[in-house]
Design a protein that fits this description.
The protein has 449 residues and is an alpha/beta fold. The chain is 35% helix and 22% strand. Bound molecules: S-adenosyl-L-homocysteine, iron/sulfur cluster and FE3-S4 cluster (F3S). The site of S-adenosyl-L-homocysteine has 17 residues, from strand 15. FE3-S4 cluster binds next to helix 1 and helix 5.
Protein backbone atom coordinates (compact mmCIF):
# COMPACT_ATOMS: atom_id res chain seq x y z
CA UNK A 1 0.00 0.00 0.00
CA UNK A 2 1.39 3.40 -0.97
CA UNK A 3 1.06 6.04 1.76
CA UNK A 4 2.46 9.54 1.86
CA UNK A 5 5.11 9.11 4.52
CA UNK A 6 8.29 10.84 3.44
CA UNK A 7 10.27 9.27 6.19
CA UNK A 8 13.53 7.41 6.17
CA UNK A 9 14.60 4.00 7.40
CA UNK A 10 17.98 2.60 8.40
CA UNK A 11 18.66 -1.11 8.80
CA UNK A 12 21.78 -2.53 10.42
CA UNK A 13 22.32 -6.21 9.73
CA UNK A 14 24.30 -8.70 11.80
CA UNK A 15 24.87 -12.40 11.19
CA UNK A 16 24.51 -14.63 8.19
CA UNK A 17 23.46 -14.18 4.56
CA UNK A 18 19.91 -15.13 5.51
CA UNK A 19 19.79 -12.00 7.61
CA UNK A 20 21.16 -9.95 4.70
CA UNK A 21 18.36 -11.38 2.55
CA UNK A 22 15.75 -10.74 5.26
CA UNK A 23 16.91 -7.13 5.56
CA UNK A 24 16.49 -6.69 1.81
CA UNK A 25 12.92 -8.03 2.07
CA UNK A 26 12.17 -5.77 5.05
CA UNK A 27 13.49 -2.88 2.93
CA UNK A 28 11.13 -3.95 0.09
CA UNK A 29 8.19 -3.76 2.51
CA UNK A 30 9.20 -0.38 3.93
CA UNK A 31 9.65 1.08 0.46
CA UNK A 32 6.21 -0.20 -0.46
CA UNK A 33 4.93 1.79 2.49
CA UNK A 34 6.59 4.93 1.15
CA UNK A 35 9.73 5.02 3.30
CA UNK A 36 13.11 5.72 1.71
CA UNK A 37 16.48 4.28 2.67
CA UNK A 38 19.24 6.22 4.38
CA UNK A 39 22.73 5.04 5.22
CA UNK A 40 22.96 7.61 8.03
CA UNK A 41 21.41 6.40 11.25
CA UNK A 42 20.92 9.90 12.65
CA UNK A 43 18.73 10.80 9.64
CA UNK A 44 16.42 7.83 10.09
CA UNK A 45 12.87 7.95 11.45
CA UNK A 46 12.94 4.18 11.77
CA UNK A 47 16.03 2.34 12.91
CA UNK A 48 15.98 -1.45 12.69
CA UNK A 49 18.60 -3.86 13.97
CA UNK A 50 18.50 -7.30 12.34
CA UNK A 51 20.25 -9.46 14.88
CA UNK A 52 22.23 -12.69 15.21
CA UNK A 53 22.33 -15.02 18.21
CA UNK A 54 24.87 -17.55 16.98
CA UNK A 55 27.70 -16.64 19.36
CA UNK A 56 27.71 -14.70 22.61
CA UNK A 57 29.65 -11.76 21.17
CA UNK A 58 27.23 -11.33 18.28
CA UNK A 59 24.27 -11.07 20.67
CA UNK A 60 26.04 -8.73 23.11
CA UNK A 61 26.87 -6.28 20.33
CA UNK A 62 23.19 -5.56 19.92
CA UNK A 63 22.91 -4.02 23.36
CA UNK A 64 25.77 -1.57 22.80
CA UNK A 65 24.20 -0.59 19.47
CA UNK A 66 20.82 -0.13 21.12
CA UNK A 67 22.35 2.15 23.76
CA UNK A 68 23.83 4.30 21.00
CA UNK A 69 20.54 4.31 19.09
CA UNK A 70 18.71 5.63 22.15
CA UNK A 71 21.18 8.51 22.48
CA UNK A 72 20.83 9.42 18.80
CA UNK A 73 17.03 9.24 19.13
CA UNK A 74 17.13 11.58 22.14
CA UNK A 75 19.31 14.06 20.26
CA UNK A 76 16.96 14.01 17.25
CA UNK A 77 14.03 14.68 19.56
CA UNK A 78 15.77 17.54 21.37
CA UNK A 79 17.45 19.21 18.40
CA UNK A 80 14.99 18.56 15.58
CA UNK A 81 11.76 17.64 17.36
CA UNK A 82 11.68 14.34 15.46
CA UNK A 83 10.65 10.98 16.85
CA UNK A 84 12.66 7.86 16.05
CA UNK A 85 11.10 4.42 16.07
CA UNK A 86 13.57 1.74 17.16
CA UNK A 87 12.96 -1.88 16.19
CA UNK A 88 14.80 -5.14 16.69
CA UNK A 89 14.28 -8.14 14.41
CA UNK A 90 16.07 -11.43 13.81
CA UNK A 91 17.40 -14.27 15.88
CA UNK A 92 18.15 -12.47 19.15
CA UNK A 93 14.48 -11.54 19.37
CA UNK A 94 13.40 -15.16 19.09
CA UNK A 95 15.81 -16.19 21.84
CA UNK A 96 15.79 -13.19 24.19
CA UNK A 97 12.62 -11.18 23.67
CA UNK A 98 12.08 -10.49 27.38
CA UNK A 99 15.76 -9.61 27.88
CA UNK A 100 15.56 -7.02 25.10
CA UNK A 101 12.54 -5.30 26.60
CA UNK A 102 14.14 -5.43 30.05
CA UNK A 103 17.55 -4.16 29.05
CA UNK A 104 16.31 -1.73 26.39
CA UNK A 105 12.73 -0.73 27.35
CA UNK A 106 12.81 2.12 24.81
CA UNK A 107 12.63 -0.40 21.95
CA UNK A 108 9.34 0.13 20.06
CA UNK A 109 9.06 -3.31 18.51
CA UNK A 110 10.83 -6.65 18.60
CA UNK A 111 9.83 -9.11 15.90
CA UNK A 112 11.14 -12.65 15.37
CA UNK A 113 12.54 -13.83 12.01
CA UNK A 114 9.45 -15.81 11.02
CA UNK A 115 7.00 -12.92 11.34
CA UNK A 116 8.81 -9.89 9.97
CA UNK A 117 6.06 -9.51 7.36
CA UNK A 118 4.04 -7.95 10.19
CA UNK A 119 6.37 -4.94 10.46
CA UNK A 120 4.43 -2.54 8.17
CA UNK A 121 1.21 -2.96 10.15
CA UNK A 122 3.07 -2.63 13.42
CA UNK A 123 4.64 0.61 12.22
CA UNK A 124 1.26 1.98 11.19
CA UNK A 125 -0.10 1.14 14.65
CA UNK A 126 2.86 2.68 16.41
CA UNK A 127 2.59 5.84 14.34
CA UNK A 128 -1.19 6.11 14.81
CA UNK A 129 -1.15 5.90 18.60
CA UNK A 130 2.29 6.24 20.04
CA UNK A 131 2.56 3.33 22.43
CA UNK A 132 4.12 3.45 25.86
CA UNK A 133 5.22 -0.14 25.69
CA UNK A 134 7.15 -1.98 23.03
CA UNK A 135 5.41 -4.67 21.00
CA UNK A 136 6.90 -8.16 20.91
CA UNK A 137 6.02 -10.83 18.35
CA UNK A 138 7.93 -14.11 18.32
CA UNK A 139 5.25 -16.28 16.78
CA UNK A 140 6.19 -19.45 14.84
CA UNK A 141 3.22 -19.20 12.44
CA UNK A 142 1.80 -22.09 10.45
CA UNK A 143 1.65 -19.94 7.32
CA UNK A 144 4.89 -18.91 5.68
CA UNK A 145 5.86 -15.25 5.87
CA UNK A 146 6.85 -15.51 2.20
CA UNK A 147 3.13 -15.56 1.33
CA UNK A 148 2.79 -12.03 2.66
CA UNK A 149 5.86 -10.31 1.29
CA UNK A 150 5.54 -7.80 -1.55
CA UNK A 151 7.35 -8.47 -4.82
CA UNK A 152 11.08 -8.29 -4.39
CA UNK A 153 13.04 -5.30 -5.69
CA UNK A 154 16.53 -5.12 -7.15
CA UNK A 155 19.41 -6.16 -4.94
CA UNK A 156 22.16 -5.48 -7.49
CA UNK A 157 24.27 -7.72 -9.73
CA UNK A 158 24.52 -10.41 -7.05
CA UNK A 159 21.35 -11.34 -5.22
CA UNK A 160 20.37 -13.67 -2.44
CA UNK A 161 17.23 -15.73 -2.75
CA UNK A 162 15.99 -17.66 0.29
CA UNK A 163 14.60 -21.03 -0.81
CA UNK A 164 14.62 -22.81 2.52
CA UNK A 165 14.54 -21.69 6.11
CA UNK A 166 14.97 -23.33 9.49
CA UNK A 167 16.85 -26.43 10.51
CA UNK A 168 16.00 -29.86 11.91
CA UNK A 169 19.56 -30.95 12.54
CA UNK A 170 19.98 -29.77 16.12
CA UNK A 171 23.77 -29.70 16.24
CA UNK A 172 24.36 -29.57 19.99
CA UNK A 173 26.14 -26.19 19.94
CA UNK A 174 23.71 -24.33 17.69
CA UNK A 175 20.80 -21.96 18.33
CA UNK A 176 19.45 -21.90 14.78
CA UNK A 177 16.82 -24.67 15.15
CA UNK A 178 15.41 -22.65 18.08
CA UNK A 179 15.58 -19.21 16.48
CA UNK A 180 14.51 -20.16 12.95
CA UNK A 181 12.29 -23.12 13.73
CA UNK A 182 11.69 -26.27 11.71
CA UNK A 183 12.73 -26.62 8.10
CA UNK A 184 10.48 -25.07 5.49
CA UNK A 185 11.04 -25.12 1.73
CA UNK A 186 9.41 -22.60 -0.60
CA UNK A 187 7.54 -24.02 -3.59
CA UNK A 188 9.50 -24.26 -6.85
CA UNK A 189 7.21 -21.83 -8.74
CA UNK A 190 7.55 -19.16 -6.06
CA UNK A 191 11.36 -19.42 -6.14
CA UNK A 192 11.41 -19.22 -9.95
CA UNK A 193 9.12 -16.19 -9.91
CA UNK A 194 11.42 -14.39 -7.49
CA UNK A 195 14.47 -15.41 -9.55
CA UNK A 196 12.91 -14.04 -12.75
CA UNK A 197 12.21 -10.73 -11.05
CA UNK A 198 15.78 -10.52 -9.79
CA UNK A 199 17.12 -11.16 -13.28
CA UNK A 200 14.73 -8.60 -14.77
CA UNK A 201 16.09 -6.00 -12.33
CA UNK A 202 19.73 -6.60 -13.26
CA UNK A 203 20.84 -9.62 -11.28
CA UNK A 204 23.54 -11.72 -12.96
CA UNK A 205 24.32 -13.99 -10.02
CA UNK A 206 21.84 -15.66 -7.68
CA UNK A 207 22.90 -17.26 -4.42
CA UNK A 208 20.20 -19.65 -3.19
CA UNK A 209 20.02 -19.50 0.57
CA UNK A 210 18.92 -21.78 3.33
CA UNK A 211 20.19 -22.70 6.79
CA UNK A 212 20.36 -26.21 5.39
CA UNK A 213 19.86 -25.41 1.73
CA UNK A 214 20.71 -28.84 0.33
CA UNK A 215 17.86 -30.45 2.22
CA UNK A 216 15.51 -28.29 0.11
CA UNK A 217 12.32 -30.20 -0.72
CA UNK A 218 9.86 -27.72 -2.21
CA UNK A 219 6.72 -28.67 -4.10
CA UNK A 220 6.41 -28.26 -7.85
CA UNK A 221 3.15 -27.32 -9.64
CA UNK A 222 1.91 -30.90 -9.35
CA UNK A 223 2.47 -31.04 -5.63
CA UNK A 224 5.47 -33.30 -6.05
CA UNK A 225 8.42 -32.70 -3.73
CA UNK A 226 11.61 -31.72 -5.52
CA UNK A 227 15.17 -31.53 -4.26
CA UNK A 228 17.78 -28.83 -4.67
CA UNK A 229 19.28 -30.49 -7.78
CA UNK A 230 15.94 -30.08 -9.60
CA UNK A 231 15.69 -26.46 -8.51
CA UNK A 232 19.25 -25.70 -9.66
CA UNK A 233 18.52 -27.12 -13.12
CA UNK A 234 15.33 -25.04 -13.36
CA UNK A 235 17.09 -21.85 -12.32
CA UNK A 236 19.97 -22.52 -14.70
CA UNK A 237 17.44 -22.48 -17.57
CA UNK A 238 16.40 -18.89 -16.85
CA UNK A 239 17.47 -16.47 -19.57
CA UNK A 240 20.00 -13.83 -18.60
CA UNK A 241 21.38 -15.50 -15.50
CA UNK A 242 25.17 -15.91 -15.54
CA UNK A 243 26.04 -17.44 -12.17
CA UNK A 244 24.44 -19.64 -9.52
CA UNK A 245 25.61 -20.50 -6.01
CA UNK A 246 23.90 -22.11 -3.04
CA UNK A 247 24.69 -21.96 0.65
CA UNK A 248 24.85 -23.39 3.35
CA UNK A 249 24.92 -27.12 2.82
CA UNK A 250 24.94 -29.93 5.34
CA UNK A 251 27.46 -32.69 4.48
CA UNK A 252 25.08 -35.61 5.10
CA UNK A 253 22.57 -34.14 2.64
CA UNK A 254 24.99 -33.92 -0.31
CA UNK A 255 23.42 -36.56 -2.55
CA UNK A 256 24.81 -37.74 -5.91
CA UNK A 257 22.19 -35.88 -7.92
CA UNK A 258 23.30 -32.63 -6.32
CA UNK A 259 26.99 -33.47 -6.68
CA UNK A 260 26.39 -34.11 -10.40
CA UNK A 261 25.00 -30.59 -10.79
CA UNK A 262 28.61 -29.47 -10.34
CA UNK A 263 29.44 -31.48 -13.46
CA UNK A 264 26.34 -30.67 -15.51
CA UNK A 265 25.45 -27.03 -14.86
CA UNK A 266 28.07 -24.73 -16.38
CA UNK A 267 26.82 -21.60 -14.58
CA UNK A 268 26.97 -23.27 -11.17
CA UNK A 269 30.11 -21.70 -9.72
CA UNK A 270 33.01 -24.05 -8.91
CA UNK A 271 33.05 -23.15 -5.24
CA UNK A 272 31.16 -24.85 -2.41
CA UNK A 273 30.77 -23.94 1.23
CA UNK A 274 30.41 -27.23 3.07
CA UNK A 275 31.03 -26.83 6.79
CA UNK A 276 32.73 -29.77 8.47
CA UNK A 277 33.12 -28.10 11.92
CA UNK A 278 35.70 -30.62 13.23
CA UNK A 279 37.91 -33.40 11.89
CA UNK A 280 37.46 -35.60 14.97
CA UNK A 281 34.78 -38.28 14.82
CA UNK A 282 34.40 -38.19 18.59
CA UNK A 283 33.68 -34.46 18.48
CA UNK A 284 31.44 -34.72 15.40
CA UNK A 285 29.37 -37.28 17.29
CA UNK A 286 29.15 -35.08 20.37
CA UNK A 287 28.11 -32.24 18.07
CA UNK A 288 25.31 -34.49 16.74
CA UNK A 289 26.57 -34.04 13.20
CA UNK A 290 25.30 -36.89 11.01
CA UNK A 291 28.66 -37.43 9.32
CA UNK A 292 32.12 -38.69 10.19
CA UNK A 293 35.28 -37.15 8.82
CA UNK A 294 35.48 -40.13 6.43
CA UNK A 295 31.95 -39.51 5.12
CA UNK A 296 32.84 -35.89 4.58
CA UNK A 297 36.05 -36.66 2.72
CA UNK A 298 34.20 -39.08 0.45
CA UNK A 299 31.72 -36.36 -0.49
CA UNK A 300 34.56 -33.93 -1.18
CA UNK A 301 36.29 -36.51 -3.37
CA UNK A 302 33.10 -37.02 -5.39
CA UNK A 303 32.74 -33.27 -5.79
CA UNK A 304 36.33 -32.90 -6.98
CA UNK A 305 35.68 -35.69 -9.45
CA UNK A 306 32.42 -34.12 -10.67
CA UNK A 307 34.23 -30.85 -11.33
CA UNK A 308 38.03 -30.87 -11.11
CA UNK A 309 38.05 -27.05 -10.91
CA UNK A 310 35.87 -27.03 -7.81
CA UNK A 311 37.26 -25.56 -4.57
CA UNK A 312 35.87 -25.80 -1.06
CA UNK A 313 35.28 -23.61 1.96
CA UNK A 314 34.13 -24.55 5.43
CA UNK A 315 33.27 -23.46 8.95
CA UNK A 316 35.17 -24.76 11.97
CA UNK A 317 34.60 -24.69 15.69
CA UNK A 318 37.59 -25.12 18.01
CA UNK A 319 37.39 -25.87 21.72
CA UNK A 320 34.10 -27.77 21.66
CA UNK A 321 33.61 -29.50 25.07
CA UNK A 322 36.07 -32.36 25.59
CA UNK A 323 38.16 -31.48 22.52
CA UNK A 324 41.65 -32.86 23.21
CA UNK A 325 44.90 -32.08 21.43
CA UNK A 326 44.40 -35.22 19.35
CA UNK A 327 40.88 -34.11 18.33
CA UNK A 328 42.25 -30.74 17.35
CA UNK A 329 45.04 -32.40 15.35
CA UNK A 330 42.33 -34.30 13.44
CA UNK A 331 40.81 -30.96 12.47
CA UNK A 332 44.18 -29.72 11.19
CA UNK A 333 44.51 -32.97 9.27
CA UNK A 334 41.21 -32.54 7.43
CA UNK A 335 42.22 -29.00 6.49
CA UNK A 336 45.41 -30.37 4.96
CA UNK A 337 43.50 -33.00 3.02
CA UNK A 338 40.77 -30.76 1.61
CA UNK A 339 42.92 -27.62 1.18
CA UNK A 340 40.10 -25.14 1.63
CA UNK A 341 40.55 -21.90 -0.24
CA UNK A 342 38.48 -19.96 2.31
CA UNK A 343 37.05 -20.68 5.74
CA UNK A 344 35.38 -19.27 8.81
CA UNK A 345 36.63 -20.51 12.16
CA UNK A 346 35.30 -19.78 15.60
CA UNK A 347 35.99 -20.50 19.26
CA UNK A 348 33.17 -22.58 20.66
CA UNK A 349 30.67 -20.27 22.37
CA UNK A 350 28.29 -21.63 25.03
CA UNK A 351 24.75 -20.82 24.03
CA UNK A 352 22.11 -21.04 26.74
CA UNK A 353 19.53 -23.74 26.09
CA UNK A 354 21.72 -25.84 23.77
CA UNK A 355 22.89 -29.31 24.92
CA UNK A 356 26.62 -28.55 24.53
CA UNK A 357 26.40 -25.62 26.94
CA UNK A 358 26.01 -28.02 29.85
CA UNK A 359 28.44 -30.69 28.65
CA UNK A 360 31.36 -31.61 30.87
CA UNK A 361 34.99 -30.78 30.13
CA UNK A 362 34.42 -27.33 28.72
CA UNK A 363 37.68 -26.16 27.17
CA UNK A 364 39.55 -23.24 28.75
CA UNK A 365 39.41 -19.93 26.93
CA UNK A 366 43.21 -19.80 26.70
CA UNK A 367 43.33 -23.17 24.91
CA UNK A 368 40.52 -22.16 22.54
CA UNK A 369 42.44 -19.03 21.65
CA UNK A 370 45.66 -20.93 20.96
CA UNK A 371 43.90 -23.51 18.82
CA UNK A 372 42.02 -20.90 16.85
CA UNK A 373 45.26 -19.13 16.05
CA UNK A 374 46.97 -22.32 14.89
CA UNK A 375 43.97 -23.31 12.78
CA UNK A 376 43.58 -19.88 11.22
CA UNK A 377 47.28 -19.71 10.31
CA UNK A 378 46.94 -23.03 8.53
CA UNK A 379 43.72 -21.97 6.78
CA UNK A 380 45.26 -18.66 5.70
CA UNK A 381 48.26 -20.48 4.27
CA UNK A 382 46.01 -22.46 1.89
CA UNK A 383 43.97 -19.37 1.07
CA UNK A 384 47.14 -17.46 0.20
CA UNK A 385 48.55 -20.39 -1.75
CA UNK A 386 45.42 -20.56 -3.90
CA UNK A 387 45.34 -16.80 -4.42
CA UNK A 388 49.00 -16.86 -5.49
CA UNK A 389 48.28 -19.74 -7.87
CA UNK A 390 45.73 -17.50 -9.61
CA UNK A 391 48.40 -14.93 -10.59
CA UNK A 392 48.85 -14.94 -14.36
CA UNK A 393 45.46 -16.56 -14.94
CA UNK A 394 42.50 -14.99 -16.72
CA UNK A 395 39.30 -15.04 -14.69
CA UNK A 396 35.75 -13.85 -15.32
CA UNK A 397 34.98 -11.17 -12.76
CA UNK A 398 31.58 -9.86 -11.83
CA UNK A 399 32.14 -6.17 -11.13
CA UNK A 400 30.07 -5.31 -8.09
CA UNK A 401 31.18 -2.02 -6.60
CA UNK A 402 33.45 0.97 -6.91
CA UNK A 403 36.79 0.75 -5.13
CA UNK A 404 38.38 3.35 -2.90
CA UNK A 405 40.53 4.93 -5.61
CA UNK A 406 39.33 6.70 -8.71
CA UNK A 407 38.88 4.28 -11.60
CA UNK A 408 39.11 1.25 -9.30
CA UNK A 409 36.37 -1.36 -9.28
CA UNK A 410 35.93 -4.42 -7.10
CA UNK A 411 34.53 -7.65 -8.48
CA UNK A 412 34.09 -11.28 -7.58
CA UNK A 413 35.82 -14.22 -9.23
CA UNK A 414 34.02 -17.59 -9.55
CA UNK A 415 35.78 -18.54 -6.29
CA UNK A 416 34.36 -15.58 -4.36
CA UNK A 417 37.74 -13.85 -4.25
CA UNK A 418 37.64 -10.07 -4.30
CA UNK A 419 39.49 -8.76 -7.32
CA UNK A 420 40.50 -5.11 -7.59
CA UNK A 421 40.81 -3.72 -11.03
CA UNK A 422 41.86 -0.39 -12.56
CA UNK A 423 39.61 0.48 -15.46
CA UNK A 424 38.80 3.42 -17.59
CA UNK A 425 35.74 2.11 -19.35
CA UNK A 426 34.23 -0.79 -17.46
CA UNK A 427 31.11 -0.45 -15.43
CA UNK A 428 29.80 -2.20 -12.37
CA UNK A 429 27.11 -4.87 -12.75
CA UNK A 430 28.78 -6.68 -15.59
CA UNK A 431 31.15 -9.58 -16.08
CA UNK A 432 34.53 -8.96 -17.68
CA UNK A 433 37.65 -11.07 -18.18
CA UNK A 434 40.57 -9.99 -16.05
CA UNK A 435 44.15 -11.12 -15.86
CA UNK A 436 45.32 -11.55 -12.27
CA UNK A 437 48.55 -9.65 -11.68
CA UNK A 438 49.06 -9.93 -7.94
CA UNK A 439 47.58 -11.58 -4.86
CA UNK A 440 47.47 -11.27 -1.09
CA UNK A 441 45.83 -13.57 1.48
CA UNK A 442 42.55 -11.68 1.12
CA UNK A 443 42.32 -10.36 -2.40
CA UNK A 444 43.57 -10.24 -5.97
CA UNK A 445 44.47 -7.40 -8.30
CA UNK A 446 44.08 -7.62 -12.01
CA UNK A 447 43.63 -5.79 -15.27
CA UNK A 448 40.86 -5.93 -17.79
CA UNK A 449 41.60 -7.89 -20.93
N1 LIG B 1 23.56 -23.80 8.76
C1 LIG B 1 24.93 -23.64 8.63
C2 LIG B 1 25.50 -22.48 9.42
C3 LIG B 1 25.09 -22.27 10.80
S1 LIG B 1 25.80 -20.97 11.70
C4 LIG B 1 25.62 -24.97 8.91
O1 LIG B 1 24.99 -25.90 9.33
O2 LIG B 1 26.80 -25.06 8.70
C5 LIG B 1 27.35 -20.64 10.99
C6 LIG B 1 28.51 -21.22 11.72
O3 LIG B 1 28.60 -20.73 13.03
C7 LIG B 1 28.44 -22.73 11.93
O4 LIG B 1 28.81 -23.43 10.79
C8 LIG B 1 29.41 -22.94 13.06
O5 LIG B 1 30.73 -23.13 12.60
C9 LIG B 1 29.33 -21.62 13.82
N2 LIG B 1 28.66 -21.79 15.11
C10 LIG B 1 27.38 -22.14 15.34
N3 LIG B 1 27.14 -22.21 16.66
C11 LIG B 1 28.31 -21.92 17.29
C12 LIG B 1 28.70 -21.84 18.64
N4 LIG B 1 27.86 -22.10 19.63
N5 LIG B 1 29.99 -21.50 18.92
C13 LIG B 1 30.86 -21.23 17.92
N6 LIG B 1 30.54 -21.28 16.62
C14 LIG B 1 29.28 -21.63 16.29
FE1 LIG C 1 23.02 -25.11 13.24
FE2 LIG C 1 23.71 -27.56 12.66
FE3 LIG C 1 21.45 -26.58 11.69
FE4 LIG C 1 23.77 -25.69 10.77
S1 LIG C 1 22.99 -27.77 10.58
S2 LIG C 1 22.02 -24.46 11.37
S3 LIG C 1 25.08 -25.74 12.57
S4 LIG C 1 21.89 -26.96 13.83
FE1 LIG D 1 22.80 -15.68 13.26
FE2 LIG D 1 20.30 -16.34 12.99
FE3 LIG D 1 21.90 -16.41 10.92
S1 LIG D 1 21.57 -16.81 14.72
S2 LIG D 1 23.87 -16.91 11.83
S3 LIG D 1 21.32 -14.62 12.04
S4 LIG D 1 20.24 -17.79 11.35
Amino acid sequence: METCVSEKYFIKTFGCQMNVYDSSRIADMLENEGYTATSKQSDADIVIFNTCHIREKAAEKLFSDLGRAQLIAQERQENEGKTTIIGVVGCVVQAEDTQIMKRAPFVDFAVGPLVYHKIPKLLRDIRAHRRQEGVVDTDFPAISKFDFLPENKAQGACSYLAVQEGCNNFCTYCVVPYTRGAEYSRPVAEVLKEARRLIATGTLEINLLGQNVNSYHGEDENGQERGLAYLLHKIAELDGLKRIRYTTSYPADMNDELINCHRDIPILMPYLHLPVQSGSDKILKAMNRRHTSGDYLRVVEKLYRANPDLKMSSDFIVGFPDETEADFEATLSIVKQVQYIQAFSFKYSRRPGTPAAVMENQVEEKVKKERLEILQNLLFSYQEKFNQACVGKVMPVLLEQKGRHKGQLIGRTPYMQNLHIETDGANINKIINAKVISATTNSLSGKEL
